[in-house]
Amino acid sequence: MSNGSSPSAAGAVELAGALGRTGLGVAERNFARAAIYTGVVVAIFWCGYWLERSVLHRHPAEIRFIREGSEAAMRYITIPHIIIGFLFMASSRNNQNARKRAWMAVLLLAGAGLCAIYWKGGGKANLLLYAGVYFYFLVHELRDEAMFYTVLGDAPPIPNRQAFTGLVRSMTGLIVVTIMALAWAPTPFGAYFEKLTDEKSALSGTWVADSAVVAGTLPMGLKLLLSLWPLAAVAVGYRVVLRRYAISLGFADAKGLLRTHATLFRVMFGVAGVLGLSLLLTQRAYSLILFHVVAWYVFASYQFVRHPPKSPPEGWWPWMRTTITGFKTLHIGMALGLMAVGLVWTLAMDRGGSLAWLLAPESFLYWTIMHITVSFVPR
To answer: What is this structure's pTM?
Structure first.
C-alpha cells in the first residue's frame, strides 16, 4: 500500500478489487476445468453410492464399495495419482543423480516417520492429527498451484526470484493459518467438546479434551476474545506480508503487487474456496484432495499437448511419460483397474484381507502423508 494509506480495511478492499478483475490466465482456466471435473467425478460416485445404499440396500457402510461418494472418489482416483507421481519422479532424468536420490530416500524415511506418529497418536480417532494431515495437504496443494502459475507462463518476468519464493511461502502459510483460525473460532463455545470427549476419541480423558476452553465453560467475553484474536492476527499478517513483498518485488504499493500477480492470488484463494465448498456440500474435506489430483491431471495434459515429444517414444513407459494419449491411458486405466479390484474386494467382504493396506479408507491418509512428504524433493 502507498504511504499514508488507512487501516487494514484498505488492504482488504485492494485485495478484493485485484482478485475480482476479469481476464483469466491459463492457470485459472485449468483451475476452473479441474473444479468442474471434480464435481462431475463426485456426482458419478454419489450416484453409485445412492444405488448401492438405496436400491441394493447394502448395509452397513463398511461393506459397501462406496461408503460415501466424495470419500470413495478421492480414494480410488488419488491412489493411482500417488503411485504414478512417484514413478514419474523416480524415472525423471532430472532425478537421475546421487543428490536427488538421497533426497528421495531421506524424504521416504521422513514420511514413514510421520506415518508412525500419526498411527501411534490414534490416527483418525485423534482429531488434531487427523486435521493436521489435511492442513499438511493444503500446503502441498497451494505450493503446486503457485508452481502451475509460473510454469504455465501466467507470471510476468520476476526479477527477484528469492523474494517471489518468499511471497509464495508466506501466502501459503497465511492461507493455512487463516483456515486454522476459522476452524478454531467455534472451539471456545464448545463446538468440539462432544467429539473430543467421545469414548472413541484418542483425546478423550486428556487435558485437551478436559480443558475449560474445549468444554465451553469460560465467560462469554473470554470466549469471544479467544475465538476472534487469531483472525485479527491473520488480518494483520496479510497486511504486513503484502507490504513487505510489494517493496521487495519493486512495486510502489501492495495494490501493484496484487494487480500484477492477480492470477496467483486468485488460484491460491480458490483452493481455500474449494475446501469451503467441499465442507459445505459434503460436510467433508475429501474433495480438496480429489481436486488436487484432477488439477494435476489437467495441468499435465495441457503440458503434454503444448510440448509433444520431438520424436515418437520407443517403449511403453516413455510413451506413457511423454505423450498425452499414453498419459491418459495410464491414469484412467489404473483408476479403473483399482476400482475393479476394490469392487471384488468389497463384494468378497474381506475387510481384513491383504488388500486392506491398499484400499481401506483407514489406510488412505498414510498414502497421503507419504505422497506429500516425498513431493518436497527439490525441483
So the answer is: 0.89
